[in-house]
Design a protein that fits this description.
The complex is a heterodimer of chains A (about 190) and B (about 100). Chain A has about 190 residues and is mostly helical. Chain A has helices spanning about 5-15, 20-30, 35-50, 60-75, 85-105, 110-125, 125-135, 140-150, 155-175, 180-189. The model of chain B has no long low-confidence stretch (mean pLDDT about 85). The chains are: A mainly alpha (about 190), B mainly alpha (about 100). The structure holds zinc ion.
Chain lengths: ~190, ~100
């Protein structure tokens, strides 16, 4: 950290504006609101202790790295199988759907399309699901998602793109979104 | 044609697109996801891709489906409780003030 900015001032300037993003990402990682808040709180403490070593560049990426490491350390102390419990994920997904519908009454909802996207998402393995969640729900860039997952950017891209292709294929098979070729052959028959 | 083959061999890195140069459908397919995510670094490619999607029905339809998928997923996003964000900011503030 440069001399003219104190650690405390740097913490306020770089860290506090990122609290909301940290909380969203924490919720994707922990799957529970209370755990997510605990995780962010621990991350803030670690970030505070490390702020003097932070060079002021890419604060979000720096914080997401701390968040990820904090998350990994916390999980070493718990039962790992709870992490990807499908029932928990399902419950969570249906919760966020209904909360969302309540908070956005103005949105035009194509129920059938959305329902098929939802069911395709549920059947994706967590490898694909978590990348899609980080990028499409939490709005992270590829580089930021790579930081959280501790994988190369190319891996983020290939997981994301393969996951979306699976969803797209599901939509084709269920007839919700045919391809141009399907439409053409359908017409000529 | 040669340029598009070379680009495919180099994973899209070389030669760069000239302004107005047409992308092929497979090239569009390879860049579409990054285009939709705003992750294509090359402005010329962004423009050519957008122009291709306007003109080519097949790629245009695919882009549309992927946009709707992204949109459907994005709207699953539950709002984070404002009081949680507030509480954590205050927690951080107290850390910074040495309380
Ligand atoms: Zn095309």
């Amino acid at each position: 950290m440069s001399d003219e900015v104190s650690g405390d001032a740097a913490f306020e300037r770089y860290v506090l504006p990122e609290v909301e993003v940290m909380l969203r990402v924490a919720r994707s990682l922990t799957r529970h609101q209370a755990d997510a808040e605990d995780l962010v709180q621990d991350t803030l403490i670690r970030a505070y202790k490390a702020i003097d070593r932070f060079d002021g560049r890419y604060p979000r990426a720096w914080l997401l790295t701390i968040l990820r490491n904090t998350h990994i350390n916390r999980n070493r102390r718990r039962r790992p199988e709870l992490l990807h419990d499908p029932d928990v994920q399902l419950e969570r997904a249906s919760q966020s759907l209904s909360e969302d519908e309540a908070s956005r009454p103005d949105r035009f909802i194509d129920l059938e399309f959305d329902a098929e996207v939802e069911s395709a998402l549920q059947s994706l393995s967590s490898t694909f699901g978590e990348v899609i969640e980080l990028v499409d729900i939490n709005g992270l860039t590829y580089a930021e998602a790579a930081e959280v997952l501790d994988v190369p950017v190319g891996t983020v891209m290939s997981r994301l793109h393969r996951g979306r292709k699976k969803i797209r294929e599901h939509l084709r098979q269920t007839g919700v979104a045919p391809t141009y070729r399907d439409l053409e052959t359908g017409r000529s028959q | 044609m040669i340029r598009s083959i070379l680009r495919r061999m180099t994973g899209g890195r070389w030669p760069g697109l000239r302004p107005g140069e047409q992308l092929s459908c497979p090239e569009v397919g390879r860049s579409l996801q990054r285009f939709l995510d705003g992750e294509l670094p090359d402005d010329v490619e962004v423009e050519s891709l957008a122009a291709h999607l306007e003109e080519c029905k097949r790629c245009g339809l695919e882009a549309d489906v992927y946009r709707r998928i992204k949109d459907a997923i994005e709207h699953r996003r539950a709002d984070v409780p404002e009081e949680s964000v507030q509480r954590l900011r205050e927690f951080g503030q107290r850390l910074a003030e040495g309380a």
